[in-house]
Write a structure and sequence with these properties.
single chain; 5-stranded mixed β-sheet; 2 domains; 13 strands; D-Maltodextrin-Binding Protein, domain 2; 10 helices
Length: about 260
């Protein structure tokens, strides 16, 4: 199993809700709010298109669960990843849920809900007899415009070469073809890759970047336009409710166990 036990993960997330304890006693507003979510839908298992071209995934199920308990009527719309936040700022959408890490840079542009998912990204590469994995002088594949790419640019100071991709699947394809040395991606995305086509026989997770959550990201959050306090609080209340009533763990287990 590549994932830490769920109860440890839950403790991490619930600790971030302490400043919002008053929300527990707040009744859900009777006023229904329509919320249009933007998402990229190209990052399995978080968001993707199913066979019927409908947007599915962990993030979508989480958003629907939040909407259900917080009296929100929600719709989901595809948008390229690099324009998600700018579209939100211009008012084209009300919120963005697309595996977005809450970082200081992004907080300058938009506001975020509390974190609903918190796992460090990992490096995956060919199985090796090396005693210690190093990214020095390595070609690293990473999703373009992502917080993972921003992190590498800021913190990967080992003379490595960062190659950006518009899709993780292309990065994994180049890894298999030997065009790059390693891929830096979210843990769930890497685990999905390892479980396909016997990839686990030849590739493995070499390093879990725990410092990512200590110094760079506060975990995934739902982005809203700066100053949209009403929607932000409604989302936070919904997140709290689905954690407390067991819905979150149900969805988590469906995708990650």
């Amino acid at each position: 199993m590549f994932f830490p036990r769920f109860f440890l993960f839950s403790l991490l997330l619930f600790s971030s809700f302490s400043s919002f304890s008053s929300l527990a006693a707040s009744p859900v507003s009777e006023e229904n709010i329509k919320v249009s979510f933007a998402t990229e839908a190209n990052y399995y298992p978080f968001e993707y298109f199913n066979d019927k071209k409908q947007i599915q995934g962990f993030d979508i199920d989480i958003a629907n669960a939040i909407c259900n308990v917080a009296n929100l009527t929600c719709s989901f719309h595809y948008q390229s990843f690099d324009s998600l936040l700018s579209s939100l700022q211009f008012g084209r959408f009300d919120a963005v849920i697309s595996s977005l890490d809450i970082t200081n840079e992004r907080l300058k542009k938009v506001d975020f809900s509390n974190s609903y998912y918190r796992e460090p990204p990992v490096f995956v590469s060919k199985n090796s007899s090396e005693k210690k994995f190093s990214i020095a002088e390595k070609f690293i594949g990473v999703k373009a415009h992502s917080s993972n790419q921003d992190y590498l640019i800021k913190y990967a100071k080992e003379n490595s070469f960062i190659i950006s991709y518009f899709s993780s699947s292309k990065a994994f394809s180049d890894l298999k073809d030997g065009k790059i040395d390693t891929v830096f991606a979210d843990q769930a995305v890497v685990v999905d890759f390892l479980q396909k086509e016997k990839n686990q026989k030849y590739f493995s997770i070499q390093r879990t970047e725990k410092i990512f959550l200590q110094e760079f990201s506060k975990g995934y959050g739902i982005a809203v336009k700066k100053g949209n306090r009403e929607l932000q609080e409604r989302l936070n209340l919904g997140i709290k409710i689905i954690f407390e009533n067991g819905t979150y763990q149900e969805i988590y287990n469906r995708y990650f166990e």
